[in-house]
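Quick start: read one record
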Amino acid sequence: MTLLRLIFNEIVGLFVDDEQLALSILAVVAACWLMVQYVHDDSILIGLLLLVGCLGVLTASVMKGARR
């Protein structure tokens, strides 16, 4: 049972470890969702925005982590 609890805590830690990264990804996803709701235009553009936004947030997080 202790092993299961340890595994569970590690999995939860993957998602909660970097709050800034999680909030930034949620902001990118929310911005893309708003564009889908109100623009009703080119879905490939919104997909690219989602991809570039998430990669940008991830790159910024890695650069920030490398400085520590």
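The radius of gyration is 16 Å.
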